[in-house]
Fold these 4 entries.
Entry 1:
Amino acid sequence: METKWINESMFYHIYPLGFFGCDMENKGGDNESHKILKLIDYIPHMKYIGINALYIGPIFQSATHGYDTTDYRLIDTRLGTNEDFKKVAQELKKNDIKIVLDGVFNHVGRKFFAFEEVRKHREGSQYCSWFSGLRFDWNNSYNDGFHYDSWEGHELLVKLNMQNPDVRNHLLDAVEMWIDEWDIDGIRLDAADCIDLQFFRELKQRTTAKKSDFWLMGEIINGEYTRWLQPDLLDAVTNYSLFNGIYNSLNSKNLCDIGYNVNREFNNEWGLYKGKLLYNFVDNHDVNRVASLINDPKDLFNVYSILYTLPGVPSIYYGSEWGIKGHKNDGGDIELRPAIDVDNIPIENQELVDHIKKLAEIRKNSVPLKYGDYVQISNECLYWAFARNFNGETTVVCVNTDDNPHHFSFNYNGRQYDIDVNGRDTEIV
């Protein structure tokens, strides 16, 4: 069997400006903090819970929250220097942890060099064609005396003109630098549904020429994913449909909902994404923490049991292994992105941490959980059983949302299964 690093992966997701307690405004200057070097001290914790892939981002120079990029070749000075991140990347690789960075390519910040040139020279700028919807007979809320397209009306985020080959090459050259300098293994593509597909084709060609197994994962929130999941485009997308289904089904004690959803996506005969490996998560930097979404903390154990056993690549958002809470307040994300003191790692909720560690060990040792198809065995409101199969090997998963123990009894592929599952628990056989 050919081993693929992405199938073998269990991700940890860090939003670094929050994780390292950076100021939310980049005041500029050369006051590099070297904060990102503390990530080296955090590696033992990630390894303890079985992590072997890190998605970290955004890390490039920006004015505020990181998604208003001003320089694609420079680590944000609030985090450190390029040389700092090189040291971090080397340590991650020594510990067999893959690296995936945030690629924010749909838009840039207002301090991006080409946009500043447009503000300075207006119609006379050589960079006018770099931006989408640029009009000098209109104005914007910053009173620049011209209009431009932005991401969802947020004028801080200036939309690039991806039809311009100079723009595409500027971005693609930066990605090649990331691979050469830091040996990264993949990119998470921000706002992928807003980006021209031809850019993804070029990105795929350029990155696979550098690394044959380079991984491209797009942030897609709504709709079906098949448009982007093509051999010449993206390898995976964010599985928001699964994210919603897991906590909703556990809160309502109606596993029929999540069962229907997973069957629709991954049924071994007609699933929409059969054979694809989507990026699965239960929270991230843009949505409420799962501990704030779930009605009863006891159900967090089943949350992660489901996450680690379904088709796809599981990802833990930093801090959620301790069950920390966080809500979006008035549309703000600060509470979702707290600082972590690497020298005093939280020890509360160690039972949940150890549960995730156990799940990582089970997944590591189960070929079907990493490579197998999906077959639903039974699906009732309170109980759910499914199988993952690969090359004659089978792993069976039984989920019980009832407070009381439940006995699962069924015949699957000629074998009789009799499995006792405690209340609000999962058995993996």
Entry 2:
Amino acid sequence: METSTKITRKWILCTFGSFISCFIFLLYLKHNNEAVHFRTLRHAMFNVTLSLDDSFFHPGNLETSKAATSREDEGNIIQKNSKNKCNIFEGRWVYESKGSSYYEAPQCPFLSEQVSCQKNGRPDFDYENWSWEAHDCVIPRFNGRDMLKRLRGKRVIIVGDSLNRNQWESLACLLYSTIPPSRAHLDFSSSSYKVFKAKDYNVTVEFYWNPFLVQLDSKNAPKILRLETLDLSCLHWQGADIMVFNTGHWWLHRGKFKAWDLFEYKGQLVDELKLESAFEVAMGTWANWIDQNVNLIKTTVFFRSVSPAHQGQTGCYTKTQPITDISHVTHFSESLMEIVVRTLSKMRVPVRYLNITKLSEHRIDAHPSVYGKKKGQELMKRKLKPPESFADCSHWCLPGLPDTWNRLLYASLVLDHPTDSPGLSHLVS
């Protein structure tokens, strides 16, 4: 009996000691735990430490990428390092041998000849196999059905030049390829206005061609760029739930490609006005309209940074691999980018800055190059000039790089927090 009592006491002491040990261990975990869940839309970040190579390109081991993908499919953004804030625009390109494209070009009959590289004879596919990974967080893969659910009953407008049309084609295809074609409405006959609608979700995605954002009167001579008057398409912008704007390329055109003869500024026609000054006035005109017309509760506004071109020397002709020199910077329209950031930082309405410039600069392989068409004929079959002289090194093949822009747009909606206006400079590389 006495022996039994001693055993019982020892058992109680052992149990109590185990309980105390577990309690201390849990306190330790609570103090040191860096795992904080970030669920979509206003939930906290989920932090896990991953040992990743910080190089800009990573064509080798894909185990980390595959593990990340399994988590990405859950629709979460996963923080890798609690010390650094998640910046989805800082990262590296990772090669995936099985391909990372979300759709096949033939699935989307509305893709323009300008971006249909495979259809126009491009023989290689590697440019479709590069996936963007952020340094400090795992970005979810684009999920068309999830995005349609998030956008249910909403209207998206994409406004800008042909590079924003490139982005519209990508987004429309990403969404169109996830639903039955009979449940979509498409109007893509015009180059200046296009619309995709997912009927079952009541989601519309529209494109308005407006390369300057302000009004260009090019029907009469002289051609006048009105710096203090928005393009008439602004009448259709109002009321949209998500707005994506860009401008930049057309401001840099010279010679026969220059779109204007005179600026209209302060009620006067002027021809001697510094380009940067004119651009800043135009950006101010756009910003004032946004501040005065956007409902902060209803609408989210994005401004996409300039899409880099790779002109000069042989340009993008014959390039089938990205630029692997991580220090490579083209400084394409750097002064205009600084004006954009300065303008956004002064606005009442918080604008999310889609800073795709740096990550796109290295993708010299992703342009249509000579695999485009002009007047219905493949450029390579014309043989009128040396191929490098007519290679398109500004736009992008689809599937391709603009799908990554839209993946980052999607990720920004998942993060669901607008960029703090005064801190925009930290997003510019």
Entry 3:
Amino acid sequence: MDDTDTDTDMLMSIGAFARRVGLAPRALRFYDDCEVLRPAHVDDATGYRYYAPEQQARAVLVRRLREAGVPLTDAAVVLDGAREEARAVLQEHVARARETAASAQVVIQEILSTLPDGTPWTTEAEANWTTEAKAKVCVGGAELASAVRQVAPAVAAGPVREEFPVLGHILIEIDGQEVRLVATDGYRLAVRTLRAMSTEGDSWRVLVAAAEMKDAAAWAMRMPDVSIEADREGARLRSGAYSRTLPTADETALPFPDYRMVLDNFPMARHRIITDRAALRTALAEAGFGDAPIILRTAEQRLTLTPAEPEPEPGSDRDPGPGPEELTLPAICTGPPLRIAFAPEVLLAAIEAGVGPDVLLEISSPDQPVVARSADQGSFTTLVMPVHDAAADK
């Protein structure tokens, strides 16, 4: 960026500008990376970003669009496209939002009508918990339920769980003011971080069977806040007069994988793809690709999805016939053109577990784990392993 004509005396630091426009510095750095909101000046020596007063209107519009759930690819049209294009994009978004809200209302009403009376939880007087908790952390009930929902798809199932029982558990880790939920099946790794309302005692961690955590999360969803407590006998959840013991596993017998080592040694991303999360989810779920690997390709700010060509059967010259057509989605892509393959159901589970209108894929190479997370909400991260792309070897 050419900053030679910039009056630096009028510029604001990223922190001051963030407070003025209501955006987090992390979000401003992200919007710079994807060229939605570039700083007016970047210091060559320090790399610090500075913003001009006249950029406030654009920043506030970005914030309002994101608050309305507008995907970043559509927001770019509103920000820089023609007025009629912007109007059409926003009208389409309103129509989709109404449709989604109506569908959600129907589903929720059906669920409410089938909820059983009573609760499986015990009252504090009935709970056989006689020792003082050595540690306690309080989080929002809905936030805890959301965290369980997001990491649960990465829990191992079937033969993998039978061979490695620890992978059928969710790790709950308390570290200062942060609560982390972690799950992995060896091919996926999901980490969700919550900010605690309050904490007491030392840092600690427990392993809880995924089925138990899912059951507890369904109850926690209805509570304004939930305490996670631990002592030498185990762990429990409590809200008001109700509590429930969480069966925990012994990590001396079942060591959980060192997820921190995986994240700390992750290679630098060479490619970044940002696209509409709902559109990508629909493409993966409804495109009719079957069990064949799905090929993702980037070029000219587009993300193209095609099924991998099936391997011909030995000795067969039969034409398999036309397969599903390729699908193309608008995307913000950085880095050189990319081709990478995934198992559709594995990538779909990671996309469905995300939050926000967009998904961000950070890719170092086609044979290394891919980071999938919300574009500008960094509290949930999942790693997905790509699969071998035989056609790329030809």
Entry 4:
Amino acid sequence: MADELLFYNYDLSRVIENHRTELLKELDAMADSRLLNTDLAELQSYAQQKYQLEMIELGEPSIDEGRTKMQVGRYGGFRSGYDDGGSVSVDAQRYTLEIPFTGDKDLFFCRGSTFNMNPPRGTVKGTVIATTMVERQPTAELVNATFDRFLKDLDQHLGWLRPSVVGWNDSIAAVVDSHVQARRARADQTGSVASGLKFALKQRNDRAATFAAPVAARKKIAPQLPQARPVAPPEPALSDAIYRDILDTLQQMAEVMERSPHAYADMDEETLRFQFLVPLNAKFEGEARGEAFNYGGKTDILITSQGRNIFIGECKIWKGEKALSEAIDQVLGYLSWRDIKAAIPLFNRNRSFSDVLAKIRPTMEKHPQCTSFDGKRGETEFAFTFARADDASRKLKLTLLAFDVPGHVEGGPSVRHL
């Protein structure tokens, strides 16, 4: 078999783009109920196995030699005006350099973004690439030089392919994640996954308000699409409108405290927090009980649905940047699979309120899980978006409400301090 031109037939960038197209085509063909209920990590692993390009790695070369015949011109390979153009068969020596390899053999026929106009020639058979030379009077120096040049050319061309191959392989997981997130957002918007699922939160003044509940040379073994998880109801989430209403209620109650600071200066932790529960439960009622808001621990105010927290309120007293960062960690620890919404009513007692306000935004933005500052409302309300440490795609809306409610210098409240 004659050696053929290597690293020439196909453009590697087009090969990679075809792989991307086929991957997205397969994901597009999956129903939402199948795609969104398949473990993301398993789906990424499946795509990696099926669509990655396995970079070629060369093994140790060896030489096979033998006698053969070669055709030469009647006059030693040179034609003259007096010869008849014929040729004769003469004895010759054949040397074949054989190199085992692993990886996708088709890459031997792909041209990288960097290439030259004189690629090597060879023969690919199974898991061996070879090149053959035939000489009537070979020398060791000639054989070594020919094969060294072939090996050097192989290494150079494979080196030109490697960055594109590695880049594509590294991007597969992100391609899958991006597609799944886009499909999830579309499914949430249209309600195709979670149609009809709601967590009722009625306002006692009879105005309609509900919780929205979106969804949630070895043989290759053909990768199998992972099994979908059993379809379960998506985790509930609090609507933006109700979240805004809750923040307004907290703001109004805190303003009452600011106007009558002495009435609240001696309140202990539980009593202070109870001041927020009263107006909240006066305005909202839960789906299965009269009180939508409840105690969830030492300091938190919670709304829960289906055993999941969908709103968290953490009452804190300012005691420096470090303590505020620790409070954020505490709130983030409550984060469920679905994004939730939270608030930190932050009380300033006997400190410069202007200084406290100036430190809030930089402290919050300095937190490693803060992804954005979403703006202020007035001088004392700060909105942020945070992400889970183990899954950056899961977001938490966190609003800090700052209030100036002085306490007694001595014998003051036993509220847990920031």
